[in-house]
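Here is one chain, start to finish.
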Amino acid sequence: MKDYIEERAISIANYIIENNATVRQTAKEFGISKSTVHKDVTDRLMQVNPALAKQARKVLDVNKSERHIRGGLATREKYLHLEHR
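Its structure:
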């Protein structure tokens, strides 16, 4: 694995942990795809720094378990704003 990929994977994991960020937020911040974020954290980082990978994975698992709630809130907000027109 190339050095810059290892560094990116570590940076991504640190960003996710520090900001409690979702895969989508992280991808936008780093200018990469959601697939790359996921691959960096789950596969590549496990080879470089397994402890950091597990921490980042915990945050992503929590975010994944809560995403249906965020989606529902976003839909609610959308329709609340439409009613006020």
